Amino acid sequence: MPQEIQLQVLPEIAATNHLLVDYVAKLTHTPSNEIQHVTILKRSIDARQKQVKINLKVQVFFQGEDVQHRSVSFPDYKNVKDAPVAIVVGAGPAGYFAALQLIELGVKPIVVERGKDVRGRRRDLKAINVDHIVNPDSNYCFGEGGAGTYSDGKLYTRSKKRGDVNRILELLVAFGASQDILVEAHPHIGTNKLPKIMEDMRHKITEFGGEVLFDKRVVDFDVKSNEIKGAVLHTGETIAANQVILATGHSARDIFELLDRKNIFIEAKPFALGVRAEHPQSLIDSIQYSCDFRGDFLPPAPYSIVKQVNGRGMYSFCMCPGGVIAPCATDVEEVVTNGWSPSKRDQITANSGIVVELKLEDFKPYEKHGALAGMYFQKEIENTAWKVAGKTQEVPAQRMVDFSNKKVSESLPKTSYVPGVVSSELGDVFPKFLTGIMRQGFQEFGKSMKGYFTNDAILHAPESRTSSPVRIPRSDDTLEHLQIKGLYPCGEGAGYAGGIISAAIDGEKCAIKCAEQIFGYRN
């Protein structure tokens, strides 16, 4: 019978099959030739000691035993061409996984996406990077796959209670992701791999009778007697449906404004905001792995750090080993940064959002905007940064030590941020209380990670789209909006997710509740 074993081994052993077999043989007191196969079930890095080790959970198959390889397959999708309809607003992870779940349950999804498909998006991304032109409907946040497609592809979530993480991972593998995501403690697909996966999801949706409409922006909802009746597009056409899953993402400000204007209840939500810090990857490797060179068997090192500064949490967010910083504005007269890594994480720089938690009281100067106060706080910082850097897609930047010392950097090295950087005093971008926390916080970070606090690190401002600035309230039972029957607030934009996995899970949950309403059953 196959045997499961927990191991802690050197990186070279974990990465080399015959060495791993020999190690397992010695551990189990078995000749190597009697071990037929060793399958790695789980893998994580332990860098707490000077000698970095790899934690493995393996399954050992001995001679004569049937080797069982983990297989994945698609669910039993139904042809829904003539089935009851539900509208899904947004083609990000929440929207696409909702659409696939609807098909599985016998409902026809019509996915409405304001942006372009993944191929069309590339031209608009180039326009931002090279020509500093922002298309408000097609950019790093809007378009097929949503913000996740071109924002790294991290698949780690701490929220195991949200739902079946493995189901989402296995579906991603079925759509073409590496099986490594089923093994790694912090799985990652890579921005270069995600577009094809999202494209294949769309093909699966349309293959079974669903529809995906691009370049279609929702500008209104048809609501009668507090019940949803359909969605109105910018073209003037209305798509009729009694169920709408609203999965627009954290940057769909026009949707938040629409709901507020129609007196459909939303509420301000705290989020976090700060800068994106870039270090040489070799420096992060030396800090995390306690070595001058990480060698051939360790991946580029990530880091995670959190400190309490003046009663506020300041922490790393969306850390990208071997990655780059991207321009993520969704409108003119603003600049926004985010980060991503390719699948091999082979760039020479590492970057991370370093953000400070905000409180509702911070939005008091914007209270005239009601539930949109946090959004206007966010918008003003993005607009100020745009002005400080010269009103293009260049961003204000400063060396880390210089920032803490309130000194404009005399020079800046070339960073991975393609549109360019302008040496600035970042204190001119942020409110005074936020700047003070960050100046002190970076020094505190340096005490925990020796070498982190350095002028070799460049801060780019702002990192402002960490999560939605609003929450769209819904019933815990039906997941419908508390006021509007048939409207399902979903994913990051509604305040119920924080990444690809949690958004996908929430999309599936909303789809299940939607199907229950259509067919009159409880799952």
From TrEMBL:
Against Gene3D superfamilies, the record matches this protein to: 3.30.70.2700, FAD/NAD(P)-binding domain (3.50.50.60)
Residues of the FAD-dependent protein C-terminal domain: 270-466
Q: Name one GO molecular function term.
A: oxidoreductase activity
Every copy of the FAD/NAD(P)-binding domain together lies at: 87-255
* UniProt cross-references to Pfam families, sorted A to Z: FAD-depend_C, Pyr_redox_2
Query: Which parts pass through the membrane?
Result: none
- Specify the domain of life of the species encoding this protein: Bacteria
- Protein name, UniProt field: FAD-binding protein
